[in-house]
Specification:
about 130 residues, 2 domains, 11 strands
Amino acid sequence: MRFGHRLLACARRAEVVREDVTTGVAMGVDEVSGAGAEGVRTAGYTVPRYPVAPGVRLNVRSGPGTQYRVVRVLPYGASVPVNCQTAGQWVTGPYGTSNIWDNIADGQFVSDAYVLTGSDGYVAVRCS
């Protein structure tokens, strides 16, 4: 299985998310403790995925608010990895009103009001 790597900025540490490049499924997270490949070690953590509200084709935006451009639209029945979360514009959706925005990939955010995380609060580290 081939893996694509992308960097995420997370609180107090750098991480590389291993992702199956054919399906987009997050397969795990490596912590980066130094420069170069020799500084990478497996953290033993898989980024959890959460379902998007049923019957919703969700806009993915370049930042945490509706004023940011749409970079893609998720299909019906999608689930998303929540890599980190940040405060942004207040949005009302199927799961309430929230100002939490979920980072699902580098430069890609969705409103938490459309994602079934099982919580009204933060479920992941804050984006830095």
